[in-house]
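Hi all, long-time lurker, first post. I run a small reading group and we've been trying to get comfortable going from sequence to structure in the token notation. Rather than ask abstract questions, I figured I'd post a concrete chain and ask someone more experienced to write out its structure so we can walk through it together at our next meeting. Sequence below, copied exactly:
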Amino acid sequence: MRTRIFLAGLAAAGLFSGVFSRNLLPSLSAQGGPTIYHNGWIDLNKNGKKDPYEDPSLPVSKRIDDLLSRMTLEEKTCQLATLYGFGKVLKDKMPNEKWFGRVWKDGIANIDQQFDGRPHTEYDLPASKHAEAINTIQRWFIEKTRLGIPVDFTNEGIHGLHARGATCFPQECGLGATWDEDLVYRIGAVTAREARALGYTNVYAPILDMARDPRWGRVEENYGESPYHASRLGVAMVKGLQENGVVST
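-- Answer (accepted) --
Happy to help. Here is the structure in token form:
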């Protein structure tokens, strides 16, 4: 069930529809054969025909059912896992031959904070270079894995995107003290636009726990102690993010 829900999120976000920067897409498939990038769809499994899961015109449920019927147990398992990015778990900045022997040779659900500035890399800035690097990694999963399932690139976002040069906003406890839903919406919108500019598709925000015990080490990451107050600001943040092109989780 979790795998099906996650794949539904990918489809809804457009990750099966070839919505990557057109000028960054290669002209040939990884196998050196005919192009896999077609007008409006990608031949993700490289078999030369448009299968149901590759067809953006079909209902999401039908595409997911078709994809699940093709997946091995290993591929389904990998769609339940997050790979923390370079400098955390991932040892490589960019794809290389060693990746064919790693767990993610069967795909991976998320790569979190691949180039978030810790440690600094040559891909951090400018934003165009950052996005091109993310697209290059995405192409590896599309072109080199059996079913070509795209990766969901995630980043933190409860007080702005976690990346070099991104706008840093107050923590949620500070935003909660403003009681300003429009302000929180606009912060979400800025965070989303910066995330999309760098190539991220999913932002971890908002956090909706209740701040009722100051001994909790992450109490500052909450809007306050009132469920009503937190829900109103939470909805504003979600709308700000999702109406500007990224998934809020």
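A couple of things your group might point at:
Residues 157-249 form one domain.
Confidence is low (pLDDT under 50) at residues 18-32.
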